Amino acid sequence: MSNILSFGRRKPTATAPRDASVASFLDGFSIEVMPRTAEKVEDFRAILPQGTRVYIAHIEGTPIEEMVATAKRITDEGFSVMPHFPARIIKDAATLEDWIQRYGDVGVHQALLLAGGVTNPHGDFSDSMQLLGTGLFDKYDFTRLHVGGHPEGNKDIDPDGSDANVSAALRWKQSFSERTDAQMAIATQFCFEAQPVIDWANRLKAEGIDLPIHIGIAGPAKLQTLIKFSLACGVGPSLRVLQRRAADLTKLVLPFTPEEILTDLARHKAANPDFGIESVHFFPLGGIKKTAEFTNEFGAQTPTAANA
Fold first, then answer.
1. What's the predicted TM-score (pTM) here?
2. Which domain holds residue 153?
3. What is the CATH number of the domain that holds 89?
4. Residue 176's CB: how many other CB atoms inside 10 A?
5. In a domain, 11, yes or no
6. pLDDT tens digits for 258-268?
7. Is 59 within a domain?
């Protein structure tokens, strides 16, 4: 965020930032959409800062044609588009190359590489390291490559409840970033409590993993919606934040917002500038417009060239 060159600013709203550290922490946030949710937004320029990175989630069964059409539309509206490449739904290297070429043809040159949410691979790939190993992203000048992170672990990857396999994979990706020209970062699963995130980020740093972290945050949504998605996505200990709220009948029907975790992380970042979180990535589980409105209330600004 230190680079003074930026892509533009939204007009400020009448609501003043509630915490200056949060406003700064949210600068350059990204957001995730799917083709079907993007269709509900008439014009992203009306709700997001110019240049915002928009991830496009590739859910099993979504045709690549729909993904590319969504990527083109959002790119043409002036946004930095980062489509998902879920390894386990990509049949082979020829399919991977076809996808990369299609995205490149509409001006996309960045990607989020994931294992994917399916249990059994559809073809030759089972993890993001295999995708990186093909060299195809470099061949087609994909200059920015993000990979997944799990601050609270992932029982699909580490069934024993440890983070041994997850950590080994991140060490491999750290090494990959050091021996290539790829600009890499870790985009994480969403969490609801700051301390597990702080502990995880500090542990990565102690282990020599210094890839910038883009922390996943669930946008404003009904409590029931968040609990449903959290259980489906394997959110760990921080799920207790939602469980405590659900036990309070006075709060059960009120929308949940991520203000508390953002405030805690922002203040920690302000007090510890070397803290590994570089940016915030929103999962708009309650709707894209609601999340955009929430960020605007804090006076969040547009991305800088440093992390675009």
1. 0.86
2. 20-307
3. 3.20.20.220
4. 18
5. no
6. 999 999 999 99
7. yes
Residue at 14 is within a domain: no
Distance CA 104, CA 101 (A): 5
Give the chain's domain count. Answer: 1
Task: For residues 51 and 95, give the distance between their C-alpha atoms in angstroms, rounded to a whole number.
Answer: 29
Separation CA 235–CA 193 (nearest Å): 11
Q: Which amino acid is at 231?
A: L
pLDDT per residue as tens digits for the range 47-84: 999 999 999 999 999 999 999 999 999 999 999 999 99
For residue 81, tell me if it sits in a domain: yes
How many of the other CB atoms lie within 10 Å of CB of 174?
A: 18
